[in-house]
């Protein structure tokens, strides 16, 4: 069965500094990978997704993620964060032969420091 | 196109009572999934309905049940509420066929059990 591990529950970072949120997955078959963002008092919103092709995926709000199959990772990065990026970020995975089922990580809370 | 709507947004119930939450998916979406979100456990999958049939189910007790109507609207019911059921309940919709990767989330219903 697949699983997702987000290595950091909270990440503090200064405004305009770069950030990386880490995600590792486990699966016996090939996967699709996602990052979702949840702003305070809202539902989740898709940031970006990897389905196939280029391993570097660009999403909304300046975020990007790189799929690394050998390390089973899908880390999320942004070169310069803003106060508006304060949110919780969820990594998720679904298996390509069962893409009707998606598993979410426990989330990483991003704190932007002024 | 209108997004996923959930009603009510906030709810306070007493232990032992039952509660029904409602979710209206995006027009044309036939799959609705329900999640429970708590600070300790993160996002946990409850169940998914597609064309009025439960297609996937998470590891929750039988007190948690759901249904889907012919117009794809879904309801979730929790009977004999416990304090631990206090959570944000999110629903998400997709078109539902294989290859529909992105889930669209509603804003959630915040349930407090006292």
Word description of this protein:
The complex is a heterodimer of chains A (114) and B (114). Chain A is mainly β. Chain A has no helices and 12 strands. Chain B is mainly β and 114 residues long. In chain B, the strands form 2 sheets. In chain B, strands 2, 4, 5, 6, 9, 10 and 11 form a 7-stranded mixed beta sheet that branches. A 4-stranded antiparallel beta sheet of chain B has the order 1-3-8-7, with no helix packed on it. Chain B is globular and about 40 Å long. The N and C termini of chain B lie far apart (37 Å). The model of chain B has no long low-confidence stretch (mean pLDDT 93). Chain A binds chain B through residues 32, 34, 36, 41-46, 49, 51, 90, 94, 99-107, and chain B through 4, 31, 35, 41-43, 45, 48, 50, 55-56, 90, 92, 96, 98-103, 105-108.
Return the average pLDDT of chain B rounded to an integer. 93
Uncertain runs of chain A: none
Instruction: Output the helix-strand order of chain B.
Output: EEEEEEEEEEE
SSE-based structural type of chain B:
mainly beta
Q: Which blocks of ≥5 consecutive residues of chain B have pLDDT under 50?
A: none
* Terminus-to-terminus distance of chain B: 37 Å
Mean pLDDT of chain A: 92
> Count of helices of chain A?
0
> Which two chains form the greatest contact, residue counts included?
A-B, 22 and 24 residues
Task: Indicate the overall shape of chain B.
Answer: globular
The biggest sheet of chain A amounts to:
6 strands, mixed
Largest sheet of chain B: 7 strands, mixed
Shape of chain A: globular
Helix-strand layout with pairing:
The complex is a heterodimer of chains A (114) and B (114).
Chain A: E1 3-5, E2 10-14, E3 19-21, E4 24-26, E5 31-38, E6 44-50, E7 56-58, E8 64-68, E9 73-78, E10 87-95, E11 103-104, E12 108-113
Parallel strand pairs in A: 2-12
Antiparallel strand pairs in A: 1-4, 3-9, 5-6, 5-10, 7-8, 8-9, 10-11, 10-12
Chain B: E1 5-7, E2 10-13, E3 19-24, E4 31-38, E5 42-50, E6 53-57, E7 64-68, E8 74-78, E9 87-94, E10 104-105, E11 109-113
Parallel strand pairs in B: 2-11
Antiparallel strand pairs in B: 1-3, 3-8, 4-5, 4-9, 5-6, 7-8, 9-10, 9-11
């Amino acid at each position: 069965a697949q699983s997702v591990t987000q290595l950091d529950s909270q990440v503090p970072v200064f405004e305009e500094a770069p950030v990386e949120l880490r995600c590792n997955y486990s699966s016996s078959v090939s996967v699709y990978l996602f990052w979702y963002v949840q702003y305070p008092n809202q539902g989740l919103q898709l940031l970006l997704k990897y389905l196939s092709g280029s391993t570097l995926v660009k999403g909304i709000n300046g975020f990007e993620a790189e799929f690394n199959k050998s390390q089973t990772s899908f880390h999320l990065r942004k070169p310069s964060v803003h106060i508006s990026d304060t949110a919780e970020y969820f990594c998720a995975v679904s298996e390509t032969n069962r893409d009707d089922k998606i598993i979410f990580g426990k989330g990483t809370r991003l704190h932007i420091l002024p | 196109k209108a997004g996923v709507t959930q009603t009510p947004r906030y709810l306070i119930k007493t232990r032992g009572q039952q509660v029904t939450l409602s979710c209206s998916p995006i027009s044309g979406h036939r799959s609705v999934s329900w999640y429970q979100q708590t600070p300790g456990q993160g996002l946990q999958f409850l169940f998914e309905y597609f064309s009025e049939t439960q297609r996937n189910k998470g590891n929750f007790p039988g007190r948690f049940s759901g249904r889907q109507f012919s117009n794809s609207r879904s309801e979730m019911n929790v009977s004999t509420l416990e304090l631990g059921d206090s959570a944000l309940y999110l629903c998400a919709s997709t078109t539902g066929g294989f290859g529909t990767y992105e889930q669209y989330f509603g804003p959630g219903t915040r349930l407090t059990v006292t």
